[in-house]
Amino acid sequence: MPLPPILYEDDALLALDKPSGLLVAPDRWDKSRENLMALVHARFGRGVANVHRLDAATSGLLLCAKTKPALDFLSGQFQARAVEKTYHAFVAGQPALDEFTVELALGPDERHPGRMRVVKKGGQPAATQFRVLARFRGCAWLECRPLTGRTHQLRVHLAATGTPIWGDVFYGDDTPLLLSSFKRGYKGREDEKPLLARLGLHASELALLHPVTRERVTLQAPLPHEFEVALKYLRKFAAAAR
């Protein structure tokens, strides 16, 4: 696999547009699986390090540091929750409010290794702000701003509110987003390809202080083509009545 598109690069930073399905780092159980950092190291050398991670199924902006001082400075911002993170998501169902905040502590799900769950005691505090950008029949399009950085935070928080992210096999279901499900008189169901057959979550933006200039910079990743197509058809055939 070729290196994903470079969104930004200078002497200290490297930002990439990670596709859905690609691991960021080597899999702990299967070291043979392709991963983004192996591609980065092959191109730029092993001195480049990822500052944060994205789930394999999530697409979008992945930030790396090219030097140790840059890595330390950026990591400090993430740990201090000084980085503004913006995601976009398709969710199944309708949120009750147009703007809402979810504050639910998270911890490992002992019944399902590798997954997280909402816990009442002993978990890590987690908070996410959500804003509904558009409502459609059976689904909605959201802007998500995590205030903390817990594993699977957005996925668990949205599932806990009854509106899981579309295509989330861990916390929702793997039902694909089909045009035939909302376009009346659709023909060709037998050969239909889904509008969205992946996790409907995309890391769109990071705003932080540059490790060298100390100026505020905003890095962005464009929406995946399949997201643009899905939004086009949802707006045309499935706009929800307000």
Report on this model:
With 242 residues, this protein is an alpha+beta fold. It has a single domain, classed as Pseudouridine synthase. 17% of the residues lie in helices and 29% in strands. Strands 1, 2, 3, 4, 5, 6, 9, 10, 11 and 12 form a ten-stranded mixed β-sheet that branches. Strands 7-8 form a two-stranded antiparallel ribbon. A hairpin with a 7-residue loop joins strand 7 and strand 8. The longest helix is centred in the C-terminal third of the chain and has 13 residues.
Briefly say what this structure is.
By secondary structure, the protein is an alpha+beta fold.
Layout of strands and helices, then pairs:
Elements: E1 6-9, E2 13-18, H1 36-44, E3 49-50, E4 59-65, H2 68-79, E5 84-92, E6 99-103, E7 106-108, E8 116-118, E9 127-136, E10 139-146, H3 153-160, E11 201-209, E12 216-220, H4 225-237
Parallel strand pairs: 4-11
Antiparallel strand pairs: 1-2, 2-4, 3-4, 5-10, 5-11, 6-9, 7-8, 9-10, 11-12
Helix content bin:
10-25%
Number of strands: 12
CATH superfamily: Pseudouridine synthase
Output the helix-strand order: EEHEEHEEEEEEHEEH
CATH level-3 fold name: Pseudouridine synthase
Question: How many domains is the backbone divided into?
Answer: 1
- The N- to C-terminal Cα distance equals 45 Å
CATH class: Alpha Beta
- What spatial form do the alpha-carbon principal axes imply? globular
Treating each run of at least 4 consecutive H or I residues as one helix, how many helices?
A: 4
